[in-house]
Amino acid sequence: MDQPTLPDHDLDPGDLVRVTFDPPCDDAEHGPIREATGTILRVAGLVYLQASSHRTAWRMPAILDLNRTTRRIERLDTAAAQRARQAAARRGAIVFAGPGTTAPALLSQLDELAGLMLGAEIAGETARRDELRHQFDDLADCVALAKRKRTYLLHRARIDDFHPWLTRDPRVMRIETVRPLPADFEPDPGARHDRQRRLEEAIRIFGEAERETRRLASVFRAAGYHVRRPHPNAQELLLRIEMSSSMQADIRLACSANGLWSAEAAPAENKRKIRANARLLRDGHLELAARRLARSVDG
Q1: Do the Cβ atoms of 118 and 106 come closer than 8 Å?
Q2: Of the chain's two ends, which shows fewer C-beta atoms within 10 Å, N or C?
Q3: Angle between helices 147-159 and 103-122 (to 10 degrees)
Q4: Per-residue pLDDT reduced to its tens digit, 245-254
Q5: Across the chain, where does the E strand assignment appear?
């Protein structure tokens, strides 16, 4: 028995439908078309059919106007159901039925998936590696884990524990790799954004130099300096000095292994920056920053 015509407002973009035209729809390339199958396309409130059953000379689906024709539409599949099947196919056999309910459990799941991805890559099973990456991202999405922190977990599976800023390894793009804190895996957003907890965890992981780095950043910002870290995990600071509208230079504040802070002009990569560094020294900016650093550390 024929199904009734679906109202236009019941048609979602991407729905797979069969359309019967009465009278036949005229198409410049295919002539009269009585029946066509394809997906719904909406443009500016109008409804069209991307007819996969009738392709152009370029093998593209013909676009049939459904707005000024008498037609009966039968929905064969919904766009949502198609997306769900495609998503399931991209993920393959599921390793974890759901995300861990605690931060340690979720981190353990992510570490295991990262290890499985590495194993699949070594075995040359690129399709399975890609499936596992989708599952890895699904779990990471549960806590909105930043891309650079996901990269850290994937690198750690390959080269064990490392410091994103200090470790020199050709397999690691340092600026794209940030070590997450335990709080980053908390299911509760409030726990993830707890500033005091995050500070305590950062100090526990990176040492007291982390606290000193943050304190000095506050001191120099309060003094009017433009302060930034060259990397989120770097325990050093860069002070941007604007000497003119076209000349800038950076002063690098860094802590040695024995805890001694020092100030120096950041290395110059080209002639323009060499000239900027020379003016930085000539105008006394480095000396002024070094005195302020000494007072801040001693005080």
Answers
A1: no
A2: N
A3: 60
A4: 889 999 999 9
A5: 16-27, 31-43, 46-55, 61-65, 71-77, 226-228, 236-244, 247-255, 261-265
